[in-house]
Design goal:
The structure holds two protein chains of two kinds. Helix content of chain A is 26%, strand content 26%. Chain A is built from nine helices and 13 strands. In chain A, strand 9 and strand 10 form a beta hairpin. The longest helix of chain A is centred in the middle third of the chain and has 18 residues. By secondary structure, chain B is of the alpha+beta class. Chain B is elongated and about 75 Å long. Classes of the chains: A alpha/beta, B alpha+beta. Chains A and B meet through strand 6, helix 3 and helix 4 of A and helix 1, helix 11 and helix 12 of B.
Chain lengths: 360, 487
C-alpha cells in the first residue's frame, strides 16, 4: 500500500484517499419533561460538523470539555442512534442509513478505543474473551484454538505477554496494560478507522507516551486512520497529521498540524494554544485567558458560538441573520471566523448555517 | 497482514517455553476466596449443603417412610426404643422341637438381640388361647386368652385394662404379653369381626440368654405372620389342637429407636423431618429459580431497552407489586387446586418482581459503561450484549438476593402450610416443615407433653433459614467490589 506518498508533515497519510467523510453532522439530545415526555428543548451537542479523514491519517479533534467531540465519535460509530442530521460516508458507504448485516460489516471496519480503561473492559471476562469476542462475532476464526492463537498474536502486537496475560481478568492489570487490551480489541478486526476517544487522558504521563507510540507503530504497520479525540494539545500535536478544533458543537478551525499550531487564526484556537502550560517558571503567565464560561449547548449563542467570549466580536458575529464565513487560509487550513478575511491569500469557501432547524 | 516471524503462534509458544501460563483470578474466584474466610457464612454454607443433600437423598437416608403409621405406638418421645415389626417370621409345624433342632444361624442372629416381638393374628376368637413357650433354662409357658377367661398364672397377671394382659417380672426374665386394643391396631390387622391382634413382647434381662419362641395353639385356628407393611409375609397355617408352631425370627434388627420420637400416628419424626425439608427446600429453590429466570431476564431486558419499553415494563411490575401477594397465592391455590406446581408458579410469580427491579437498576448503570459500547462496536447483537456483558455483571447482586430469597420463600410456604394450605401431589399431602410445625402446635397438648413434635421442625426451619441468611450476608460482603483484594 502506498501510504508514504504526499506526506506534508509526518509519514503515512494518503491524501488522495478519503476513508471517512462527515458533512453537516448534527446530534441533538431531546430534553423531555412531564408525564407524556414532552420535548421541551434540545441539547445541541453536535451542530453541523464537517471533516474528512484520509487513509493512514490521524485527525486530532480538540476542544474543551462538553464541546461535543466525544459525541462526534460515538455518533459516527452508531452508538448514539439516531443521528439528528448530516451524512457520514465511510469509503463511499453511507454510515447512518444501514441496518443489520451491512451495519455489522461496517462495524468491522470502524473501531473505537475508549478513554477509561477501567470501564471499557468487562470485568467478568478474561483477556482472551474480551479480545476474541469480535473475532467470534464476525466469524474470523474457526474454533477455540485458532481464536486463542490469534488473540496471542494481537497481545504480542500491543506489547502484552501472550502467554502469561491471556487468561487473566482486567482487574489484574494496570491502567496502561488495560489500555493495551483495549487497543488489541480495537485492532482485532483489522479496521481501517479507529476512533480514539481520549485514549490517554486517564493514564499516567509516562504511560501516555507508551500508548501514543504504540498507536503510531500500529498505524504504520496496519495503515489505520485515527480520529484522535483529546483535550491535551501536546499529545494531539505529537500524534496528529491534521487537527480540528471544536467549540460548542461546531468546528472552529481545521488545518494540518504544523499550520494550526504555527499559524492559528480563530481566536478560540489561539486561546487554546496559549493555555498550554509552559514549563518555564520565568515565562509570563497566560496573557489573555478566556473570559467567562462555555455557554450551554441547550441554548447556544446566536451567530458565532464563540462571540460571547471573543474580544474581536463584531455585530455581524452576533446575529443568526448573517452566516459565519468559512475561509481557507492555505490549502487544507480552514477557519470559521471573520478574522479569516484579513489573512493574506484567504478565500471564502463557505459558511456555517444557523438555526433554521429548531423543529428537527 | 504482515507478521514478524517471532510473532507467529509457533514463535510465541517457542519463545515462552518454560514460562508459566498464569491463570487469572476471576471475580467469582476472588469472592469465593473471601467467603471462605467468613466463618459464619461458611457454617451457613455447609449447613445449607447438608440440608440440601439430606433433602436430595431423603429416600436413602430416611430410616422410615414418613407416611408409615404405627398407631399402636402412639406418640413416643425421642430416643424411645420400640420393637420392630420388620422381622419376618417363619413357621414350622410339628411337635415341639428340641433345642438342637433350631438352626444355628437363626440362633446366633437372635443371640444379640435384647428382645423380640411377634405380631400374629388369631383369626378366630373362639379357638384362642395361644400358648407361648419360652425355651431356655427356665421354661415359661404363657397362655393368652381373651380377657376374663383366665390365664395360666392368674396370680402373676396384672390386668391393666380390658384388652391388656401383663405378666410382671418372673425371676430372671420378663415376659410381657400384650394384646393391643383393636382400634389401635394397624388397619390391615383389624380384619373382620372376631379377629384379634396380639402383640407379644419378650424382654430378656441377660444378654447371654438365647431363646426360641414356640407358639402352641390349643385348638383349630390360623396363624399368619405379618410383616412391616402389614401384609401377609409367611404362610398361613391352619392349626389343629395340640400342634406346636415354631416361630423363627430372621436376623433382621428387631428393635429400633425412633431418635426423634414418633407422632401420634406412630410416624417417625426424623423421617418426616427429612421429607418435610425436601418439600420446603424444593419449594424454596424452585420458586427462587422461577423468580431468577423471569426476574433477571425481564429486568435486564427492561433496563437495557430503556425509554418507553422500560417504562411500560416497570409499570406492570408496579401493578403486580400492589397486589397483596399472600392473597394472590391463596387465590391461586384455591382456584387451581393445591398442586405443588401451582405453588411454585404462585410463589415464583410474586418473587420475580423484586428481582426484576434489582436487575433493572443494575443494568441501567451497567449499560452506560464503555465495555457495552465496545461490544456494540464489535458487532455484538442485543442478546449477546445482554447475556454476555450485562447479566454476568449483575450476578453479584443476583446471587446475594437469591440466597436471601430462598429462606423468604421457605418461610412463605411454611406460613401457607401453617394456616392449613398444604399442597398435594398425586392426591397425597406434601407436608413441609411449616405443616409439621402446624401439626406440632396442634398436638402439643395442654402441658406440652408432646414437645418434640413442635420442637424438631421449628429447629430445622430456624437453622436452615439462619444458615441461608448468613450465607447471603457473607456473599454480599464477598461480592462487594469495595472489599475486593482485601484479605
Amino acid at each position: 500500500m502506498s501510504a508514504t506518498e504526499a506526506s506534508p508533515t509526518k509519514s503515512g497519510p494518503d491524501y488522495s484517499k478519503v476513508v471517512l467523510s462527515v458533512k453537516g453532522l448534527k446530534k441533538w439530545f431531546p430534553i423531555k419533561k412531564g408525564l407524556f415526555s414532552r420535548v421541551v428543548g434540545q441539547v445541541k451537542a453536535v451542530d453541523g460538523v464537517e471533516f474528512d479523514i484520509h487513509a493512514g491519517e490521524t485527525l486530532g479533534l480538540v476542544g474543551e470539555s462538553g464541546c461535543g467531540k466525544t459525541t462526534v465519535g460515538r455518533t459516527i460509530l452508531r452508538l448514539l442512534d439516531p443521528v439528528t442530521a448530516g451524512v457520514a460516508e465511510f469509503q463511499g458507504q453511507d454510515v447512518f442509513n444501514i441496518q443489520g448485516g451491512d451495519l455489522r460489516a461496517l462495524r468491522r471496519r470502524m473501531q473505537i478505543i475508549f478513554q477509561d480503561p477501567y470501564s471499557s473492559l468487562n470485568p467478568r471476562m478474561t483477556v482472551e474473551s474480551i479480545v476474541g469476542e469480535a473475532l467470534t462475532v464476525h466469524g474470523m476464526v474457526s474454533g477455540r484454538k485458532e481464536r486463542r492463537e490469534r488473540v496471542q498474536e494481537l497481545l504480542a502486537k500491543v506489547g502484552l505477554d501472550p502467554i502469561r496475560h491471556i487468561s487473566r481478568y482486567p482487574h489484574e492489570f494496570s491502567g496502561g496494560q488495560r489500555q493495551r487490551i483495549g487497543i488489541a480489541r480495537a485492532i482485532a478486526l483489522e479496521p481501517e478507522l479507529i476512533i480514539c476517544d481520549e485514549p490517554v487522558s486517564a493514564l499516567d504521563v509516562s504511560i501516555q507516551a507508551q500508548i501514543i507510540n504504540l498507536l503510531q507503530k500500529l498505524q504504520e504497520e496496519l495503515n489505520i486512520s485515527y480520529l484522535f479525540i483529546a483535550h491535551g494539545l501536546s499529545v494531539v500535536e505529537h500524534i496528529s497529521h491534521r487537527v480540528a478544533v471544536m467549540y460548542l458543537g461546531r468546528i472552529a478551525e481545521i488545518a494540518d498540524c504544523d499550520s494550526l499550531f504555527g499559524n492559528p487564526v480563530h481566536p478560540y484556537t489561539r486561546a487554546l494554544l496559549s493555555a498550554i502550560p509552559n514549563p518555564d517558571p520565568d515565562a509570563p503567565l497566560n496573557p489573555e485567558p478566556l473570559p467567562g464560561e462555555v455557554p450551554t449547548p441547550i441554548n447556544p449563542p446566536a451567530g458565532c458560538r464563540f462571540h460571547t467570549r471573543c474580544k474581536y466580536a463584531e455585530a455581524r458575529c452576533k446575529s443568526n441573520d448573517i452566516p459565519i464565513p468559512i475561509y481557507e487560509i492555505e490549502p487544507g487550513h480552514r477557519v470559521a471566523c471573520i478574522l479569516g478575511e484579513s489573512v493574506d491569500g484567504a478565500t471564502r469557501v463557505g459558511e456555517q448555517v444557523h438555526g433554521d432547524d429548531e423543529n428537527l | 497482514m504482515e507478521r514478524p516471524s517471532n510473532r507467529t503462534p509457533e514463535g510465541i509458544v517457542a519463545a515462552s517455553h518454560g514460562r508459566r501460563a498464569l491463570q487469572g483470578e476471576s471475580l467469582s474466584q476472588d469472592a469465593w476466596r473471601r467467603l471462605k474466610k467468613n466463618k459464619m457464612a461458611m457454617a451457613g454454607f455447609w449447613i445449607s449443603v447438608v440440608m440440601s443433600l439430606s433433602a436430595l437423598l431423603a429416600d436413602v437416608i430416611s430410616p422410615y417412610s414418613p407416611e408409615e403409621q404405627q398407631r399402636w405406638l402412639g406418640a413416643l418421645p425421642p430416643l424411645t426404643e420400640v420393637l420392630s415389626l420388620r422381622n419376618e417370621m417363619r413357621f414350622t409345624v410339628g411337635e415341639r422341637p428340641t433345642e438342637s433342632e433350631v438352626p444355628q444361624a437363626c440362633a446366633d442372629a437372635l443371640g444379640d438381640e435384647e428382645s423380640h416381638e411377634l405380631l400374629f393374628e388369631v383369626q378366630d376368637e373362639a379357638i384362642t388361647p395361644v400358648r407361648l413357650v419360652l425355651d431356655g433354662d427356665t421354661v415359661e409357658s404363657i397362655d393368652l386368652r381373651p380377657p376374663g377367661r383366665g390365664v395360666v398364672r392368674p396370680d402373676a397377671l396384672d390386668v391393666e385394662e380390658q384388652d391388656f394382659l401383663r405378666i410382671p417380672d418372673t425371676g430372671e426374665r420378663v415376659a410381657v404379653a400384650r394384646i393391643a386394643k383393636r382400634d389401635a391396631a394397624p388397619d390391615v390387622l383389624r380384619g373382620g369381626e372376631g379377629r384379634r391382634v396380639a402383640v407379644l413382647e419378650l424382654v430378656r434381662r441377660s444378654p447371654e440368654d438365647r431363646y426360641r419362641l414356640t407358639v402352641g395353639f390349643s385348638g383349630d385356628g390360623t396363624v399368619s405372620a405379618i410383616d412391616r407393611a402389614g401384609t401377609d409375609a409367611g404362610p398361613s397355617l391352619t392349626l389343629k389342637p395340640g400342634y406346636v408352631v415354631d416361630v423363627v425370627l430372621d436376623g433382621n434388627p428387631l428393635r429400633h429407636t425412633h431418635i426423634l420420637g414418633t407422632d401420634q400416628e406412630g410416624r417417625d419424626s426424623l423421617s418426616r423431618l427429612i421429607y418435610g425439608g425436601r418439600i420446603s427446600l424444593l419449594v424454596g429453590l424452585t420458586a427462587t429459580l422461577v423468580s431468577l429466570l423471569v426476574g433477571v431476564l425481564y429486568g435486564a431486558f427492561s433496563g437495557y431497552m430503556g425509554g418507553r419499553i422500560d417504562g411500560m415494563m416497570m409499570r406492570i411490575v408496579d401493578v403486580l407489586y400492589a397486589i397483596p401477594y399472600l392473597f394472590l397465592v391463596i387465590l391461586l391455590l384455591v382456584a387451581f387446586g393445591r398442586s405443588i406446581i401451582i405453588l411454585f408458579v404462585a410463589l415464583g410469580l410474586v418473587q420475580w418482581l423484586t428481582m426484576a427491579r434489582i436487575v433493572r437498576g443494575q443494568v441501567l448503570g451497567l449499560k452506560e459503561k464503555e465495555f457495552v459500547d465496545a461490544a456494540v462496536t464489535v458487532g455484538a447483537g442485543w442478546w449477546q450484549v445482554l447475556t454476555r456483558h450485562l447479566i454476568p455483571n449483575t450476578l453479584g447482586v443476583v446471587v446475594v438476593y437469591t440466597t436471601l430469597t430462598v429462606p423468604q420463600v421457605i418461610l412463605q410456604e411454611s406460613f401457607l402450610a401453617f394456616i392449613g394450605l398444604t399442597v398435594e401431589m398425586d392426591g397425597r399431602p406434601l407436608e413441609s416443615w411449616g405443616a409439621l410445625v402446624n401439626y406440632g402446635r396442634e398436638a402439643l397438648g395442654a402441658n406440652g407433653e408432646f414437645w418434640w413434635l413442635l420442637l424438631w421442625p421449628s429447629i430445622a426451619m430456624s437453622v436452615t433459614l439462619f444458615s441461608l441468611n448468613f450465607l447471603g450476608d457473607g456473599l454480599r460482603d464477598a461480592l462487594d467490589p469495595q472489599q475486593r483484594g482485601r484479605t
